[in-house]
Amino acid sequence: MKDADFSAERPQDAQLMATRAQDALWAALRSGRLRDGQFLSMAQLVDLLEFPIAAIREAVKQASSHGLLAALPKRGVQVMEARPETIRECLDFRMALDQEGARRRIAGHALDGLGALRARHVALRDAARAHAAHDMPPEAVETDLSLHDFLAAGLGNSRLADSYAANRMRIAIIQNSRPFVPDRIASAMEEHLAIIDALAARDAAAATEAIRHHCAQTLRWWGVPPVAGALSSRPEAV
């Protein structure tokens, strides 16, 4: 009887191990331990993540399905490359879902927590203006994500939320490929505050425009020109 019980538990144990390996893989991508364009053999990935090969293969399979890695038969894996077209597509994807999240929050009067969100952004903006930005990259990233999380949660759709989370991982890989620019913090917080204020005013048109502007400005700071007409015809967004 014990042998039968043990056999029944093995698939569950394997699934748990695969889930943990996937979490470890995503953490490595998010933190920059695995960087854009990096090539690794499966043996190297096993050593890095410290999980069995079977669990690593399952994690790679999941990551590949989201475009985070490319599995190269008999060679290993390669992390997504932060090419201009990839950057544009990832930011455009986020913009579209952010805009829809804003519209749904406004339509559903689901705006609780905006005050705290605004206060957090104001504090970071003021600190950046006071030239303290070089001490706070982690806080800047967390504050930046707090608004995008708020908008994503407004979608109210688990499938969209999963797609949003995968795209956020792609954006994390992109962010890790680029040098941190402290001067960007203040302007990014101003752009976020414009979005927050439009949400507070329940002005869907202003909110979606502020999100579009933030996307265009992010591309500009990253040195990636948007596709003509894709985001706006306004000179400052080009």
From TrEMBL:
What keywords does the record list, in alphabetical order?
Answer: DNA-binding, Transcription, Transcription regulation
Under what name is this protein listed? GntR family transcriptional regulator
A Pfam family name for this chain? FCD
Please tell me whether the keyword Transcription regulation is annotated for this protein: yes
Q: Which GO terms describe its molecular function?
A: DNA binding
Taking the record's annotation, the residue ranges forming a coiled coil are none
GntR C-terminal domain: which residues?
89-217
Instruction: Note the superkingdom of the native organism.
Output: Bacteria
